[in-house]
Amino acid sequence: MNTHAGNSDAPVAEGGQRRGGSTTGEVARRLGVAPTTVRTWDRRYGLGPDAHTDGRHRRWTAADVARLERMCALTATGLPPAEAARLARSEEAPTAAARPRGADVARRASAGRRSRAGSGLRLGDVRQECRGIARAALRLDAAVLDELLLAAIAEHGLVAAWTEVIVPTLQAVGRKWETSGEKYVEVEHFLSWHVAGALRRATPRTVEDRPGATTVLACVPGENHTLPLEVLSAALTERGVPVRMFGGALPVESLVAAVRRTGPAAVGLWAQSRTTASRPLAQHVAAMEWGVRGARRRPVVLTLGPGWVGQAVAGLARPAGLAEAVAALESSAYP
User: Fold this and answer.
1) What is the spatial distance between Cα 66 and Cα 178, in angstroms, rounded to a whole number?
2) What are the HTH merR-type domain coordinates in residue numbering (predicted)?
3) How many domains is the chain built from?
4) Is residue 257 domain-shared with residue 321, that is, in the same domain?
5) Both 135 and 47 in a single domain?
6) Exposure of 266 by Cβ count < 10 A (0-12 exposed, 13-18 middle, 19+ buried)?
7) Which domain holds residue 35?
8) Which of 95, 217, 228, 332 has the most CB atoms less than 10 A away?
9) Model pTM?
10) Are 238 and 253 in a shared domain?
11) Could you give the C-alpha distances from 143 to 34, 148, 149, 178, in angstroms and in order?
């Protein structure tokens, strides 16, 4: 990791770390945790820097960071934080015969930290933030999870944070759920809830309606997976596009009524499953008209989500991802 800041000429030690040590923020980013977590571990468990430099800002050496990495690996195995901290502070590792099971698991997790991201989830080659988000989700740590999600959105923007950070973590949690006898359902629900909350906090402002510029977003009847639509709504709001979001499983009659009442520029229909995707419904919405005779208008209809794969509707767009959907809907609102 490159820790140079601007044109600083601070001496750099082997491995890229300044000889003065890393700041708490730099250490937190490297570990994939919130800075408040690093400070809490310091205050509560004595895992702070061994040496102090002059001034208010503390510096962490490579040895200090290695101790925190052991702490992360140990807590990821399920050890209570106090016990994990005791083991992380130990200068000498236990012998093989006396090594606690949790420490042995942590040793293996540390060896494969790149693929498992130190969280017990198979994340693969992903952004570093995924590691901290996954770890916070597994711990059901609401405060840290919120902080990390908001930080990822602030740093990368909604679209990139969703595509490169949130989706890989959600997919990893889903795989864990599927392969463990549904033992991690609460983790998936917990993470999804906090992602939705972070999206709302990141885009608190509702855009005022403008005639002919509104986008209607809804799940098709029988479909309750709303999170992808929520991020699409947030991304459009961020770009000044007025959105009317109707969420999960909107009945046909209600969808038709919403379209007639809003006269939208575009309608996005989400289907997670092929069993819920309905070509006749999409065609019906695309054929709806309103306005005065001679100047009738129809909405642009986008079929969104994996449920539409293999069920293409003639004349209707099916964006490949979030960025493409945002671009298509934005161009519909501002032709």
Assistant:
1) 33
2) 23-90
3) 3
4) yes
5) no
6) buried
7) 12-91+100-110
8) 217
9) 0.64
10) yes
11) 9, 9, 10, 26
3-state class (DSSP) for residue 327: helix
- CA 325/CA 303 separation, integer angstroms: 10
**Same domain for 106 and 126?**
no
The closest of 260, 269, 280 to 225, measured between CA atoms, is: 269
Q: What are the DSSP calls for 304-324, one per residue? A: ESGGGTT---TT-B--SSHHH
- Angle (nearest 5°) at CA 201 between 195 and 206: 120
Q: Sort 307 into a burial class: Cβ within 10 Å, 0-12 / 13-18 / 19+.
A: buried
CA-to-CA separations, 188 to 81, 116, 134, in angstroms, rounded? 22, 17, 10
Question: Considering the domain boundaries, does residue 208 fall inside one?
Answer: no
Q: State both tokens at 219.
A: 């799940």
Predicted pLDDT of residue 243:
93
Q: Per the domain annotation, does 153 fall within a domain?
A: yes
Q: What is the CATH number of the domain that holds 34?
A: 1.10.1660.10
User: Which residue ranges in the chain fall short of pLDDT 50?
Assistant: 1-18, 91-119
* Backbone torsion region of residue 11, taken as left when φ is above 0, otherwise alpha when ψ lies between -120 and 50, otherwise beta: beta
DSSP string, 127-179: -THHHHHHHHHHHT-HHHHHHHHHHHHHHH-HHHHIIIIIHHHHHHHHHHHHH
- Confidence (pLDDT) at 161: 92
Residue 22 lies in a domain: yes
Q: What is the CATH number of the domain that holds 327?
A: 3.40.50.280
Is 149 a member of any domain? yes
221 with 184, same domain? Answer: no
pLDDT at site 245: 93
First to last CA, the chain: 43
